[in-house]
């Protein structure tokens, strides 16, 4: 029987397998070269931000100007934009943990000192609670924890918890949003005025269900329980609103508690809800986080999964609604690595990477049933999710194929999105027309995960979880109610006793034939390393024989009723 203590609750996972010394040397050389290329990418983006945009929120790399985008994030209709808002240095806040990982102590300390003296939240600006939570609050908390960690020695001068005080001030400004009949927070809050008159009551599942990591950490650091309590009440109320199938819709009303959008999946609007249940269990050790995640994860496999793909489904009936790949779904394989479902993670990851290879970057939305890019969502805003999952899978398997994936991504980003003033978003992946925007998450996540793929020395020192915005928070036993003592002993090793219950995993826990050339190690197997080329590269098929061999299980693939190759095992 599967028990929570066997979960892969840290990505520092090691499998026992034979490594040929010569191939290891080749991998080390490649990692060193690619690490420096990613470092160059980060500083090209960061230096241009500091030159042309700081202290505003984000860089416009084509015109070498700036945007105060915190008031625009999530605001598709650009309503209630402020007139006197001059930014909150969002990109600097987002970059601090990346600077720490790159080992730039000087720039990290300069950033901390500037924020300590200049960042103020007593401003009349309406912001999206979720975006502000993951970017500003998460960035400040993570940087504070890195600053006080004696093993990092990032601050050479004095540090008196300035970032924590800023985070506490910000957290207090969030609290009025939770004053609703359901205790589910408004999606929007004004820093100075609280909830504005006639504010919209619509929010998303991810927006109100993905606050617990940052607000929980803030309570643990300040001793003020209000932040964690507010986020936890909202999360529990949201879970109570699930359907009998353990599915949640995409949007809801925070006043009436009614669902507004019944279609659900693992992509936009819901994605980080799943992520935060699992990571909250890792960070805080509450048993109910695990129970919620386990039920939600099994439901996702039953109603969303179709081979390596995940479609959307009606939360009440479980019937498919939309057959589409969205770029935000690419975080899912990384989450599955944390769960220990590595074979399934590899299967989905391969499909996302095939999409990247096909277009040069990954489109925001691709219609699987029509084999076409969505007519209006053709953009790629420098998203990090595929790089994130690649990092997790390489940590889990040490399969050098994932290094090749990372190298391909670095080449694409430099080829298609690099401009003189930074890195620009892609407006249309079919033409590679660019858009004048460098999102802060490019420095907080995309560059960070690519760097960690080629240099994991930072995560080798401590057990961390990364927030949905890529900010590391150290896992500490003092924050836990109850978790196995061995959890805090260092790196984790895969144990076959940690498998899911029969039928619960996304795919059966298969292993490819051993790749070890030493006959004495023939009995050793390695998850997710059998990257056998498909006969049908684009995966569109008309019959089973066109599909070739599956790269996860080394078994013959079959053709689905919607024309995709895969191992179709509906639960």
Automatic annotation (TrEMBL):
Gene Ontology terms describing biological process: carbohydrate metabolic process; endoplasmic reticulum mannose trimming
GO cellular component, one term: endoplasmic reticulum quality control compartment
Keyword Iron found: no
Gene that encodes the chain: BnaA09g27870D
Binding site for Ca(2+): 468
Subcellular location per the Swiss-Prot or TrEMBL entry: Endoplasmic reticulum membrane
Membrane topology label: Single-pass type II membrane protein
Family affiliation: Belongs to the glycosyl hydrolase 47 family.
Listed GO MF terms: calcium ion binding; mannosyl-oligosaccharide 1,2-alpha-mannosidase activity
Its EC number(s): 3.2.1.-
Co-factor requirement: Ca(2+)
Secretion signal, residue range per the UniProt entry: 1-24
Name of the protein described by the UniProt record: alpha-1,2-Mannosidase
Active site per the UniProt annotation: 131, 271, 364, 385
Record InterPro entries: 6hp_glycosidase-like_sf, EDEM1/2/3, Glyco_hydro_47, Seven-hairpin_glycosidases
Keywords assigned by UniProt, alphabetized: Calcium, Endoplasmic reticulum, Glycoprotein, Glycosidase, Hydrolase, Membrane, Metal-binding, Signal, Signal-anchor, Transmembrane, Transmembrane helix
């Amino acid at each position: 029987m599967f028990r929570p203590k066997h979960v892969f609750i840290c990505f520092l996972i090691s499998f026992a397998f034979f490594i040929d010394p010569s191939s290891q040397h080749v991998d080390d050389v490649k990692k060193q070269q690619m690490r420096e290329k990613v470092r160059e990418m980060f500083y090209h983006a960061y230096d241009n931000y500091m030159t042309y945009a700081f202290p505003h929120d984000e860089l416009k790399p084509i015109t070498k100007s700036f945007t105060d985008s915190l008031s625009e994030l999530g605001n598709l209709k650009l309503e209630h934009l402020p007139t006197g808002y001059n930014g909150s240095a969002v990109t600097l806040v987002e970059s601090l943990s990346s600077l720490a990982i790159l080992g730039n102590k000087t720039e990290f300390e300069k950033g901390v000192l500037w924020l300590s003296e200049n960042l103020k939240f007593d401003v009349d600006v309406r912001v999206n609670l979720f975006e502000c939570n993951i970017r500003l609050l998460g960035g400040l908390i993570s940087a504070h924890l890195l600053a006080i960690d004696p093993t990092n020695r990032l601050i050479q001068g004095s540090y008196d918890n300035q970032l924590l005080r800023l985070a506490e001030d910000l957290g207090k400004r969030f609290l009025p949003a939770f004053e609703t009949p359901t205790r589910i927070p408004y999606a929007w809050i004004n820093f100075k005025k609280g909830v504005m008159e006639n504010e919209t009551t619509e929010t998303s599942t991810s927006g109100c269900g993905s606050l617990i990591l940052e607000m929980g950490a803030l309570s643990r650091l300040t001793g003020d329980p209000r932040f964690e309590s507010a986020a936890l009440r909202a999360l529990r109320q949201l879970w109570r609103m699930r359907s009998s199938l353990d599915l949640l819709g995409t949007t809801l009303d925070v006043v009436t508690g009614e669902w507004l959008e019944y279609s659900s999946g693992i992509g936009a609007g819901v994605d980080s809800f799943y992520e935060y249940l699992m990571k909250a269990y890792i960070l805080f050790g509450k048993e109910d986080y695990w129970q919620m995640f386990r039920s939600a994860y099994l439901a996702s496999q039953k109603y969303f999964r179709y081979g390596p793909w995940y479609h959307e489904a009606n939360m009440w009936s479980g019937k498919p609604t939309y057959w589409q790949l969205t770029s935000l779904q690419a975080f899912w394989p990384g989450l599955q690595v944390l769960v220990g479902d590595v074979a399934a993670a590899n299967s989905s990851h391969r499909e996302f990477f095939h999409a990247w290879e096909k277009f040069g970057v990954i489109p925001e939305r691709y219609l699987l049933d029509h084999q076409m890019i969505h007519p209006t969502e053709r953009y790629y805003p420098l998203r990090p999710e595929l790089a994130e999952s690649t990092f997790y899978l390489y940590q889990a398997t040490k399969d050098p194929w994932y290094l090749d994936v990372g190298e391909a991504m670095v080449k694409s980003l430099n080829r298609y999105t690099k401009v003189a003033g930074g890195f620009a978003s892609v407006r249309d992946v079919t033409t590679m027309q660019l858009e004048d925007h460098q999102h802060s998450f490019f420095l907080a996540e995309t560059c960070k995960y690519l760097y960690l793929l080629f240099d994991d020395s930072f995560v080798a020192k401590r057990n961390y979880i990364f927030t949905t915005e890529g900010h590391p928070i150290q896992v500490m036993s003092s924050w836990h109610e109850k978790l196995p003592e061995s959890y805090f002993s260092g790196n984790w090793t895969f144990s076959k006793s940690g498998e899911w219950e029969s039928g619960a995993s996304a795919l059966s826990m298969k292993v490819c034939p051993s790749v070890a050339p030493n006959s004495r190690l023939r009995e050793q197997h390695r998850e997710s390393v059998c990257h056998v080329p498909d006969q049908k590269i684009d995966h569109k098929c008309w019959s089973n024989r066109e599909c070739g061999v599956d790269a996860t299980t080394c078994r013959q693939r079959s053709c689905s009723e919607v024309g995709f190759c895969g191992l179709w095992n509906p639960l």
